[in-house]
Each structure stands twice: as structure tokens, then as C-alpha cells.
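Bench log. Compound arrived from synthesis this morning; before running ITC I wanted a structural hypothesis for how magnesium ion sits in the protein. Inputs:
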Amino acid sequence: MKLIQAVRGTKDIFGDNAVKYLKISEIITSFYTNYGYKMIKTPIFEETDLFKRGIGEGTDVVEKEMYTFIDRGERSLTLRPEGTAPVVRCYLENKMYITEELSKFYYIGSMFRYERPQAGRQREFNQIGVEVLGESSPIMDAEVISMGYKFLEKLGIKDLELKINSIGGTESRKVYRESLLEFLRPLKDELCEDCRNRIENNPLRALDCKVEKCRDLTIKAPILYESLNLEEKNHYEEVKKYLNIFEIKYTEDPRLVRGLDYYSSTVFEIVTNKLGSQGTVLAGGRYDNLLKQLGDKEIPAFGYAAGIERIMLLMDLEIKVNPKVYIAWLGEKSCDIAVKLGNELRNLGVKVAIDYKDKGMKGHMKKADKLNVDYCIIIGENEIEKNQYILKNFQNREQENFTLEELKERLI
Ligand code: ATP
Ligand code: MG
């Protein structure tokens, strides 16, 4: 019989990865709560128009990566490819701006993009993201960026590089677009097919192409910073000043543009050199136009998202999932005592392993070894008679005798 396998580009999370995933979720909750962020959970699918309008029709995501389908009620729905547009939709729909001057959210969840699967790139992947709505100060840009950096550090990830840039507002980008087009057109035949298409509908994306030849060809492309107006330049200078105050090191990358249309002004990426071409771990920026685009509101916003699969590839956890104690029982009468003791120890928060299959002493010891436990409790007829149970230390192999009560005290 042919076994059914996981769909291409999707991955089960189990074993060590499950431990890492849980660890990340745990840290997320405490870390983001400290910064005053509230959890938000939006549906996995949305009306297709939300992403078309939010992310932009000329982007790779909308053009060729969305999982779009018609449901039984003839609606066009899309599995969310990213988390920002849904959060903004929820914020606007619930008119949160009326009661809150500043809203801060974090989310964790799966995203869906039809991309070529490779290490660190899947079709269903998980993101942790944050969104801050209602603040235009560059101090907030620096605070959110530094928070992202510290979050990755907290997970034990080292050798990260923060890259920043400003892509200005719509008007400045229009000016830049023209000078970039002038530069790109003569190169058209040498660029990759994607970039050839980008020239017509989204030339800035050519700067973000992952094909080496395109990167080389565009190395001398005009610099976006020069097209920014004074206000935009000042904002960018302030972001850098506050990054210094937050004590976060950065490199300026004048070629850094993001893949989604809603970004403006500050953009940033935190990258590692350990994941090949999938080196971006966390990325985001300012998106002051999105609320206008989706709800006709002048509300400034800033956010980022990080790929959990990429974080897991970088995490070097010393994973300790082994139980603290294994209870070995010999004979029927011992079984009930073992079950009762195991239950009581678990109620007290002790990690207990117990095997309900009847086996001899040798079998139990083999099992305890395999589980890599710290201790083994041995319960046999003799032990029950004397109310003295053996506690074997698996680190030094020493044995001591205790009553059931003493055992509990000893192990909590
Ligand atoms: P990339 O340039 O790597 O395609 P992106 O610009 O499309 O990334 P964003 O949409 O900003 O990325 O998403 C933020 C983060 O989510 C990325 O930095 C990455 O860590 C993660 N991510 C994006 N797409 C995928 C994917 N297909 N599989 C796994 N992780 C992903
Ligand atoms: Mg992408």
C-alpha cells in the first residue's frame, strides 16, 4: 500500500523540533508581555482582496505565491501568506483606534506561500510577528528593531547582523524608481527572468534578487537615500541615533528593500550567515500607508515577522526532555503501588516515566538507561514488606532506601 506523505513544502514538528518550538512559544509569551504586547490570533484564511490590496498586486507573494481557492459559497479566499494585513484588518474592523492611542500586538502562527521548498523555505511555515499601531516616532522604530534583536539573542542565537535602510515615502520612491529604471533598462537582457518582469511592474525588487548575477549587475545601482526628502532623511538619522541608545549594532544596506508593497520609510532585516541564501531570520519595517490602503485611516504603524523554522535551524538547545525518575516494579502487588506513587509524584510536578508492561529487573534497568533518567525507584515484594524502597542514582549508581513519604520529599 502506498503510504501517504506530508504535502511537499510542509513539515511535521516533533522530537527535538517540538521542544524547540515549545521553548520559542514560552519565551515569546514572557518576552513580549514585558514590552506590553498583547497576543492576537486571526483566522488562517481571509478574503483574497485583503492581501491583494494590502501586500500589493505586483509583489511575488500576490503574483505567484498565494494559496487561493474558491469555497463552497463561491467566495475567493486565501490562506494567509503573512500576518500584518490580517492584524490590520482586525484592528480596523474592531475600531480599536477609538479606545487605544497605541496598540501593540504579537502573533504566532502558520503562513502559506507557494515557493520552491528548501532548507529554511517551506510552503507552510510558522512566523512570530509583532505590530505596533499608532506611533510615528523614530524611537519606536528603534525600540521594535532592538526588541527583535534581543528576542533572537534570548533564544541563544549568535552572530546576527542587523541591516537597516530607509525606502522613503511613495513620492520619493517614485523619483527613485525613475533613476533606477534608467539604470536597469540597458541591463535588461542580462538579468534573470524574474528581474526582467520586475523592471516593468516593481523595479525596486530587482535589488532584492537572490540570483548572484543580478546582484553583481546591480551593484552600482543608484542609491535610494539620495531620493529621500529632508523629513525622511531626518527620520532615518533619528532611528540610527536611537539604535545606538538601545545599544544595538547595525549596518546600513542601501540596497535593502522589502518584498511587500506596504513598507515605507525604515526597513530592516536581521540576517545570519549560517543558513545559505535563506539568511534572513527576522524582517520588517514601517508601514504608514497600509491603514490608509485598507481602511482610509491615517494611522502610522511598524512591525516585523520572524521565521520560526529558520530560528529552529539556528537554535542550539541543550535539549533535556528525559524524565527525572523511572519507577521499576516487580510483581502484581508492586504495580499498583508504582502507579499510585507515579501519580502522586506527577501531581507534585516531578517528571516520571513508568512502564506498564510486566518485565524483570534487567528489563527495567535497560529501559531506565535508555530513557536517560536521573533516578530509578525500585518496588518489589521485599520493599513493600519493609516499607523501604530503593532509590538508585543513575549518575553515580549509588543506592539508598526510603519510605514512600521520604521518596516524595526527596524527589520534588
Ligand atoms: P525571503 O526574502 O527569505 O523570501 P521575505 O522577504 O519573503 O523573505 P517576509 O515576508 O518579510 O520574508 O517574512 C519574514 C520572515 O519569515 C523571513 O525573514 C523568514 O525568516 C520567514 N519566511 C518567509 N518566507 C518563508 C518560507 N517560505 N519558509 C520559511 N520561512 C519563511
Ligand atoms: Mg519571500
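What the model suggests: The mean pLDDT is 93. The first helix runs from residue 15 to 34.
ITC booked for Thursday regardless.
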